[in-house]
Amino acid sequence: MNVRLDVLWHQLPQFAIGLGNTVWLCTVSTVLSLLLGALLMVPLMSRNKAMRGAAQALIDAGRCIPFLLLTYLVYFALPSLGVTVDKWSAALITLVGYNTAYMAEILRAGWVHLPVGQTDAAHAFGYTGWKLFRRIILPQVLIAVGPVIGNQLIQLIKDSAFLSIITVPELTFAANYVQSYYFVPFESFLFATLLYWALCGVVEWLVRRGEAYASIVRPLHD
Amino acid sequence: MTNGPTAAVELRGLVKRFGVHEVLSDINLQIMPGETVCILGPSGSGKSTLLRCINWLERPDEGLVFLHGTHVGYHFTASGSVPMTDRELAMLRTRIGMVFQHFNLWPHLTVLQNVIESPVHVLGRPRAEVVAEAERLLEKVGLVDKRDVYPAFLSGGQMQRVAIARALAMRPEVLLFDEPTSALDPELVGEVLAVMRDIAQIGLTMIVVTHEMEFAREAADRIVFLDKGRIVEVATADAFFEHPATERSRQFLERYR
């Protein structure tokens, strides 16, 4: 078999654009879904049972739909309701919506395992409501669940490949374009795979760096 | 209300139940400004619950709590009593300092950040002023060199001294200690008790739940002896240790001689 590295070499810009789009789509949607997930904590941990139920239902709905199907719904089904979105908006809506459900679930697990003494102390010092959440609970929860969020980010990077189906020019789309144009499926798909591995390697590395920090600032007692 | 000076803390007819189990029964107690009061009693006698009822971390089922004459937990109006909102309770709690058995320092904040956190973010005092005061307090508890260290790098005794500085930084009217040395290795107890003795001397009102008889005897003005959720005896420290008035107090003290 004749491996066409020269084609890959000449098509590097295509891959670079694809990789770049994958990176920014995943970064932006991770940040947004973390923010929205954190906001969802408020009804999810509320004392009001109806509020809790509604938030839980929303999260379950998000978690229990295949990513590809959600993409179809947003891009192809919404226009039937008169809502038309371009492919970029559809990509972001899908990535953010899908991952918000997971992030909320991850953050909730971290909150539930926070030592009771932490909120006790915060209450005793006059913290309540949003300030208690933002200054005492959320930082500790984020530190505790950092590695799980890293895992979720890897999942998100892989799921983003489905966006090639709605012609978002991300990495898988680029690989598919190059292979079909130059008839180099082996080279093109293998190269894309290597790039996904590298991307996930970077995430893993960041998680390990974060872990080293977390071991310093994680509760040891209680 | 009583005549004479207003009590720093007053408990009137306090009852607390967990399910059907009554952990506190008809607690009546007045603690005067500047007093150091030690609450003694066997495990499970309700000491910690009593302390946590003062700042409403536990809501009493019956009875009233006063802080310098102000109701804690309820507003009383002509038409009856209204429970305080979370925010109102929070503001009242800033007037009551608390030191916990397991320190409960915030692990994501350094020593200095732990001390300035609530004065800056709850009381809204200017940061520079609070930092200066926090440094003085850390000096007082002998930990100014640890100001930028995270709690995970401290010994239990050091953590508890930081926790005391953190409570003092709120300039509380009353300071509650919930078994502050019970989670410490024996060789670390002394350093924490030394700091507490210093505070008792500056005249801050202190309510201390403890098993440290030596400390209670030396530092307390009065002893409250609790058993099975009831106050059995209230006496000056000398009287309690030298001439306990009840058979139950005598039995309890026997075990510590």
Write the layout of secondary structure elements.
The complex is a heterodimer of chains A (222) and B (257).
Chain A: H1 5-10, H2 12-44, H3 49-63, H4 67-77, H5 87-112, H6 116-124, H7 129-159, H8 171-182, H9 185-217
Helix pairs in contact in A: 2-3, 2-5, 2-7, 2-8, 3-5, 4-5, 5-7, 7-9, 8-9
Chain B: E1 9-18, E2 21-31, E3 36-40, H1 47-54, E4 62-67, E5 70-71, E6 74-77, E7 80-83, H2 86-93, E8 96-99, H3 111-121, H4 127-140, H5 156-168, E9 174-178, H6 186-201, E10 205-209, H7 213-219, E11 222-227, E12 230-236, H8 237-242, H9 247-254
Parallel strand pairs in B: 3-10, 3-11, 8-9, 9-10
Antiparallel strand pairs in B: 1-2, 1-4, 4-5, 6-7, 11-12
Would you mind describing this structure in some detail?
The complex is a heterodimer of chains A (222) and B (257). Chain A is mainly alpha-helical and 222 residues long. Chain A has a single domain, classed as MetI-like fold. Chain A has 9 helices and no strands. In chain A, α3 packs across α5 (87-112), α5 crosses α7 (129-159) and α8 runs antiparallel to α9. Chain A is flat and about 70 Å long. In chain A, 37% of the residues are buried. The model of chain A has no long low-confidence stretch (mean pLDDT 90). With 257 residues, chain B is α/β, with parallel strands linked by helices. Chain B has a single domain, classed as 3-Layer(aba) Sandwich (Rossmann fold). Helix content of chain B is 35%, strand content 27%. Chain B is globular and about 50 Å long. The A-B interface holds A 115, 117-118, 120-129, 131, 135-136, 139-140, 143, 215-222 and B 55, 57, 86-87, 89-91, 93-94, 96-98, 100, 102-108, 117-118, 121-123, 150-153, 166, 170, 183.
Give me some keywords for this one:
heterodimer; A: 222 residues; mainly alpha; MetI-like fold; 9 helices; flat; B: 257 residues; alpha/beta; Rossmann fold; six-stranded mixed β-sheet; 27% strand
Question: Could you please say which CATH topology of chain B applies here?
Answer: Rossmann fold
- What is the chain-wise order of helices and strands of chain B? EEEHEEEEHEHHHEHEHEEHH
Coarse shape of chain B:
globular
Overall shape of chain A:
flat
According to CATH, the fold-level topology of chain A is: MetI-like fold
Query: What is the fourth-level CATH superfamily of chain A?
Result: MetI-like
Percent range of helical residues of chain A: over 70%
In the sheet with the most strands of chain B, the strands line up as 8-9-10-3-11-12
What oligomeric assembly is this protein in? Answer: heterodimer
- Mean of all residue-level pLDDT scores of chain A: 90
List unreliable stretches of 5+ residues of chain A. Answer: none
Count of DSSP-assigned helices of chain A: 9
Total beta-strand segments of chain A: 0
CATH architecture of chain B: 3-Layer(aba) Sandwich
Mean pLDDT of chain B: 93
Overall structural class of chain A, as computed from helix and strand content, comes to mainly alpha
Tell me, what is the CATH class of chain B? Alpha Beta
- Gap from first CA to last CA of chain A: 62 Å
| Major β-sheet annotation of chain A | none
How many strand segments of chain B?
12
